[in-house]
Design goal:
42% helix, 13% strand, alpha/beta, D-Maltodextrin-Binding Protein, domain 2, binds pentane-1,5-diamine, 388 residues
Length: 388
């Protein structure tokens, strides 16, 4: 199903010839699951693995289960934005073996091009065969020939609401046709500020969706577009209560009723509110004009000290069971075609996790910014955030 949706949505950008190449390593793996090339003797690494991932992005117990099975001790740290990970990677000597950069903001394409990751040894990753070729073809835009990036999860930057609170705050005004109006149009933000508006605290993604909202390329390199987007944002600045990239509890606990957030985090907030006994309806929306697609992927850093342990973890995560557990527990779609049958029915019914083909066609696909645009967007965002 995913395969069809993704090819349908992105056939225009599909790169020819990728599919064949990525299927190839799977075959020998079945015959010799553990054997790797003679150049990589097993077990010479200390039993340690250092992982740097986003918060609220891994099922409870998964790290412990991996440690128990392999005897490898995992040190697991988190970062909150692509900007933060980029700063760490550029400074060098991160100490991390696996990092999880996203395509949003054009970050993972830039990092791959800069040579910050080592090529994967696919003979160490037999479960690579579980990956959905259609998703891999889109990811090949960021990582030509799929040499470095292994999907962790995908999702989209979108509008999330506590529908119960939003309807109350809007009074007689109905919800808009385009959900982006709720967070970008003064007519709505002036009403919703009473129950709280939150934005992700990430310059690249906020500027991308702001550009998209005013009808520009979400990955624009035009200075004039940034000026226009900043002017639009300036009009709603006073109505924004909170900038945060960890807003699950803020939404679930009622601090924010309308947010620009990540699809799965909003799904988690909905689940958490329910667990806490709230009757409010919390949901991620599918704005009529589209949302900002991201694919977050594991990559092994160039100077990783434990690349073999990293490959073991990657292969563990690519098991159908692991990917299904991720989607079931965290509310994000995965790129693992073998996992779909193991996903719970209420999750497969969720249109923000199993996204319909026609909506996939509206998603803003991964792309890149020029260095000048990156500077322009950071400046524009900082000015916007400061200018209350
Ligand atoms: C954080 C998930 C990160 C998704 N909970 C956005 N890249």
């Amino acid at each position: 199903m995913n395969k069809y949706l993704w090819s349908f949505a992105f056939s225009v950008v599909a790169l020819a010839a990728c599919g064949k190449k990525e299927e190839a390593p799977a075959a020998p793996a079945a015959a010799a699951p553990v054997a790797s090339a003679p150049a990589a003797p097993a077990n010479t690494e200390e039993k340690v693995l250092n992982i740097y991932n986003w918060p609220d992005y891994i099922p409870e117990g998964m790290v412990a289960d991996f440690e128990k099975e392999t005897g490898i001790k995992v040190n697991y740290d988190t970062f909150e934005t692509n900007e933060a990970l980029q700063a760490k990677l550029v400074a060098g000597n991160t100490g991390y073996d696996i990092v999880v950069p996203g395509t949003a903001g054009g970050y993972s394409p830039m990092q791959v091009a800069a040579g910050l990751f080592q090529p994967l040894k696919k003979d160490q990753i037999p479960n690579w065969a579980n990956l959905d070729p259609a998703v891999m073809q889109v990811l090949a835009k960021a990582d030509p020939d799929n040499k470095h990036l292994v999907p962790w999860a995908w999702g989209f930057t979108t509008v999330g609401i506590n529908r119960t609170k939003v309807e109350k705050a809007l009074g007689k005004t109905p919800l808009p046709e385009n959900a982006w109006d709720l967070v970008f149009k003064p007519e709505y933000t002036s009403k919703l500020k009473s129950c709280g508006i939150a934005y992700l605290d990430t310059p690249s993604e906020i500027m991308s969706v702001a550009l998209h909202y005013i009808g520009k390329n979400a990955y624009s390199n035009e200075a004039a577009d940034y000026k226009e987007a900043t002017a639009m944002l300036g009009k709603v600045r006073k109505d924004i209560r909170l900038f945060s990239s960890t807003m699950i509890d803020d939404i679930a606990g009622g601090k924010a009723c309308a947010v620009i957030g990540w699809s799965g985090d909003i799904n988690q907030a909905a689940a958490r509110a329910k667990e806490n006994g709230s009757k409010d309806v919390i949901e991620a929306l599918l704005p009529s004009t589209g949302a900002l697609l991201f694919i977050d992927s594991m990559a092994i850093t160039k100077d990783a000290k434990h690349p073999n342990n990293a490959a073991k973890f990657i292969d563990y995560y690519l098991r159908a069971e692991s990917a299904a557990r991720m989607t079931n527990d965290m509310g994000y779609p995965n790129a693992n075609k073998a996992a779909t049958a193991k996903v719970n029915p209420e999750i497969t019914a969720n249109k923000t996790i199993f996204v319909d083909a026609d909506y996939m066609g509206k998603m803003i696909p991964p792309s890149s910014f020029s260095n000048e645009a990156r500077e322009a967007l950071a400046a524009a965002y900082n000015a916007f955030k400061k200018g209350k």
